[in-house]
Specification:
By secondary structure, this protein is mainly alpha-helical. It has helices spanning about 30-40, 40-45, 50-65, 70-90, 100-115, 125-160, 180-205, 225-230, 240-245, 250-275, 305-330, 340-365, 370-375, 385-395, 400-415, 425-430, 445-450, 460-475; strands at about 165-170, 175-180, 210, 235-240, 285, 365-370. The chain contains 18 helices and 6 strands. The chain has a two-stranded antiparallel ribbon. A two-stranded parallel ribbon has the order 3-4. Helix 8 links the parallel strand 3 and strand 4. It binds arginine.
């Protein structure tokens, strides 16, 4: 907004000289504080690639519809290509006085090609321009995230396949509940991350309409072809309401909501890794690559990556809330509040992408201690439900009675300091005289998981069937 090349505040100079591009009706420069609060180039420079792509498509459309000449379009395209190269080489001058990425690009274009640069903004406003750029950025972020989710799912699948038959305790209330396999447990996350990927894909499909051409808010009097720009930029169609096009940010909210849910899933897995890593559990080991030491306690190996992934869920949840609060009170259409849509969104996806990649690395690195898991799987009376089911199946007891008798067996085992499989037959017969030695076949953790053959159950064959299904989906 300020002009470094002239000290005197000129009155109504041509655009871009001595005043901001919008400065025609202004006589004075904005206050420094105004500039400080207004400027967004520090963060919206991340939209540079999208801004250039949008401008190129817009210029091409202005030419095919006869709004600008071929010569002007050629000059604009050439100038934009130069800017693209400058950005790639890190020599593009991002300048605070031009406020945001849109005006930085246009100002540079004017320096490079002169007058034709001023024709690029015909039939366009920064309102539809920023809506377009940001939408394309979020669309790209969704695509990248799906790729990272797939990589994480593949890491989980490989680990699950290696341990499809290895037993561990399954928990409810973090109390040992019933034995499951480690592969089954990991596959639960494959399902969650699969739904996350489909949420991003759904959000992407819904956001894939092009707002360019909505102009300031009401559309354009020029004979623009919105289908042409939509198609050139990979959109399914143009948006159908110009007010909505400039006012809406629900594409970002939806992506952030999907991100927040995904981060919650990541956080839960991270929490489990933290628990499994404790010497008290001793279920898994991470290599030096994904742990850190303590500066005072030489014995420590801390699961910092898991902890940080767990914590980053806070950022994702906060980002959604931040943008939701920005948007909730805004009348149609654009308000400058909406400039604050970018930082939370950028931060959220930065955190999410890092978390997804770190989690994939950690999952691949994870080495389960099969012996410890098996020992834990067989303890805590984890096969009590199997005993009750056996009483129902073999002796025809109603489940409630079987549940009661099994409870008594657990109590007796506790008194004797043994697991259910260690309870002598005569003790079991005190609870029901018809119990036979065949009951011991169902009281091991291995037998318990093998019996759970229902679709989606934890039997190794079911787990392998799900691994196969997911491999086909991900192939
Ligand atoms: N930097 C602005 C933003 O990010 C661009 C749109 C400005 N539009 C306006 N009418 N001032 O939202």
């Amino acid at each position: 907004m300020t002009d470094d090349s002239s000290n005197a505040p000129a009155r109504n100079p041509p655009a871009g000289q001595g005043q901001a591009m919008w400065g025609g009706r202004f006589s004075d420069k904005p206050a420094e504080l105004m500039q400080a609060i207004n400027v967004s180039i520090g963060f919206d420079k991340r939209l540079a690639a999208q801004d250039l792509a949008g401008s190129r498509a817009h210029a091409a459309m202005l030419r095919t519809t006869g709004v600008i000449s071929s010569e002007d379009e050629a000059a604009i395209q050439q100038g934009l290509a130069t800017i693209e190269a400058e950005i790639a080489e890190g020599v593009f001058p991002f300048r605070d006085e031009f406020e945001d990425i849109h005006m930085n690009v246009e100002a540079r274009l004017r320096e490079l090609i002169g007058t034709p640069a001023g024709r690029l903004h015909t039939a366009r406003s920064r309102n539809d321009q920023v809506a377009l750029d940001f939408r394309m950025w979020v669309r790209d972020a969704c695509d990248r995230t799906v790729g990272q989710l797939r990589a994480l799912q593949n890491a989980l699948l490989a680990k699950a396949e290696a341990h499809a038959g290895d037993v561990m305790p399954g928990f409810t209330h973090l109390q040992p509940a019933q034995p499951v396999t480690f592969g089954h447990h990991l596959m639960a996350y494959v399902e969650m991350f699969g739904r996350d990927a489909s949420r991003f894909a759904d959000a992407r499909a819904r956001m894939n309409e092009c707002p360019l051409g909505a102009a300031a808010l009401a559309g354009s009097p020029f004979p623009i072809d919105r289908r042409q720009t939509a198609q050139a930029l990979g959109f399914d169609r143009p948006t159908a309401n110009s007010l909505d096009s400039t006012a809406d940010r629900d594409f970002a909210l939806e992506a952030l909501a999907a991100g927040a849910i995904c981060a919650i899933h990541l956080s839960r897995l991270a929490e489990e890794i933290v628990i499994w890593m404790t010497p008290q559990f001793g279920f898994v080991k991470l290599s030096d690559a994904f742990t850190t030491g303590s500066s005072i306690m030489p014995q420590k190996k801390n699961p910092d990556a898991a902890e940080l992934i767990r914590a980053k869920a806070g950022r994702l949840l906060a980002s959604f809330q931040q943008l939701a609060v920005v948007m909730k009170g805004l009348p149609l259409t654009y308000s400058k509040d909406m400039q604050e849509d970018k930082v939370p969104t950028f931060e959220a996806f930065d955190a999410l992408e890092l978390s997804l990649r770190a989690m994939a690395g950690m999952v691949s690195d994870l080495e389960p201690n099969i012996a410890n898991m098996a020992k834990a799987a067989g303890s805590g009376f984890s096969t009590a439900t199997d005993l009750a089911d056996w009483l129902v199946r073999e002796l025809g007891l109603p489940f409630r009675d079987a549940h009661h008798a099994t409870g008594a067996a657990v109590k007796r085992a506790e008194e004797l300091g043994v697991e259910l499989s260690g309870l002598p037959l005569d003790e079991l017969r005190k609870l029901n005289p018809d119990i036979t030695s065949g009951v011991y076949d169902v009281l091991t953790a291995e037998a318990s998981v093998a019996s759970r053959k229902s679709y989606g159950g934890t039997s190794p064959e079911q787990v392998r069937a799900q691994i196969k299904r997911w491999k086909e989906i991900l192939a």
